[in-house]
Every structure is written in structure tokens, then in C-alpha cells.
Amino acid sequence: MGWFDDNFIPALDGVAYGLLLFVVAAGLTLAFGSGGVLNLAHGTLYAFAAYTATEVADGSWPGLALAVLAGIAAGAAGGGVLAVMTAPIAGRGHMAQAMLTFGVALVGGDLLMTVFGKDDPQVSVPSALEKPVSILGHNYPGYRLAFIGVAIALGVVGWYVLARTRIGAAVRASVDDPEMLAAGGISPARVRSGVLIAAGALAGLAGGLGAPIIGPSTSVANTVLLQSLLVVVIGGLGSVGGALLAAILVGEVQTLGVTLMPDFAPYLMYATMAVMLIARTARFGPTGSRV
């Protein structure tokens, strides 16, 4: 029981951290897998939403709701801008998209520092969510526990929309058979633009909800982007379930690694990615087919 007691809270933190990465990575994999855009400015959208939410939140319940809505609006607006910017280079391959969105990320990062400053702001949440909740004899922040529940619900809703609705069918068809989609009177280009806006909204939602967990700072955009890319790589592109499991794994490696192996913590996530890719290649082959 000693090891369990010592590491229960870090393990629970890993779940919360991982689920936050899952919400961000869901938008990233949606933009790339369904929208066809390699968006290296996705972390900047998170940071923009987190800063916006921090400015709006005032510690009240209406303030929290407004902060989340403001984050979603900021992320969706950013996704719309990226949809317009990437449309002319849609046929030039992912390298052109990567260069363009990387440039947007650099400009966006400088703009955030200019507007909000270099100091890391404090995020206000309702006092009821600041109170600790007792779990198995351990006190855990109420906000993080509430976020875990919200993130799981978001994952279920996202899976249902993509797998069981006409909107999800149109999104899948825009990738698998855009000619047939166009023959049905639906513009694949508009679907891709909508996907990028939705992906930005997910980044904004993550920024609005996640600001008290991964708060706005000068480095948060890069941190969130890199760790979300890890989730996508480990979980598999386009797989909601795979992204969820990968996000939990990355979150646990991050938080338990800092607790148990602080000297090696910065390298553990990348070592985990390497092991998972080697294991996947051994099982399915280098092209992803089962061997």
C-alpha cells in the first residue's frame, strides 16, 4: 500500500493530463486525418484560447462558462483563418502546409507575448471547484476531477459524431471518396474547411478547460503541440480510441516519470514512443499491414 499511497495522486494527475492532451490531439488528428492539413500551429491555438479564457475567467460559474466559450470561439476563429490560408496550397503536399503553419505558429507566439506579456497569468476557477475531493483517502483538486469527467464525455460524443452521424460520414467521405461526396452535392473543400474550424474549436475547448491544468505561458504552445504529436503518433492517425489510450499513456509517463525518475523524465516520453513504434512495426509491418 505504501507505493500506491505515494503515487496515487501523480497517477490521477496523469489521467487528467492525458485527457487534456487527448482533447488537443483529437483536433490535431482531425485536421490531418480528415482535413488533410498538417497543422503545426495547433499548439498556438491552444495557447491563444488559454490566454483568452484566463482574461475572461473571474472565479465565478458564469465566468467559467464564458471563458470556455471564449476559448472555443478563439480556437474556431484560428481554425477558420488556417482553412483560408492553407486552401491555396492544398495540392502541394504536407511539407508546404507544415512550413506555412509553422510560420503562423512563430508569428502567433510573438503576438501572444506582445498582447498578454511574458508573465504567466493565474487562472481563476469557481471556489467550489478549488475545494479538494476525497478519493480513497486522498485529497484531489475538484477542478481536475471534474475535467476528467468532462473529457471522457467529450471523447464519447466525438466518437459518436464521427462514427454514427451524417456529419461524420461526410467527413470520412471527404478523405476516402471526395468525388462521390461531390456527386452527392456536398463540396469536399467546404467539408475540409469545416473540419479545420472544428479542429480549432477543439484546441480552443482544450485551452478554455485546460488553462487551470496546463496554464498559458510562453512555452505552452510548443509543449502542447509536441506532446499531442506524440499522442497521434503512438495512438495511430484517425483512431479516437487509439488517441485516448495513447494520451493516457503519455500523461502517466509524464507525471509518474517526474515522480519516480525525475532525472530521466524528459526522455521517457520519447523512449515510450520509440518502443511503441517498434512494437507496432513488428506486429503490423512497416506499412501498417498485419504480418
TrEMBL record:
GO molecular function, one term: transmembrane transporter activity
Coiled-coil ranges (or none): none
UniProt topology in membrane: Multi-pass membrane protein
Primary location class: membrane
Membrane spanning stretches: 15-41, 61-86, 98-117, 142-162, 195-214, 226-252, 264-282
UniProt GO BP: amino acid transport
Keyword Transmembrane helix: yes
Keyword annotations of the record: Amino-acid transport, Cell membrane, Membrane, Transmembrane, Transmembrane helix, Transport
Assigned GO CC terms: plasma membrane
Location of this chain's protein in the cell: Cell membrane
PANTHER family: ABC TRANSPORTER ATP-BINDING PROTEIN, BRANCHED-CHAIN AMINO ACID TRANSPORT SYSTEM PERMEASE PROTEIN LIVH
UniProt family annotation: Belongs to the binding-protein-dependent transport system permease family. LivHM subfamily.
Name of the protein: Branched-chain amino acid ABC transporter permease
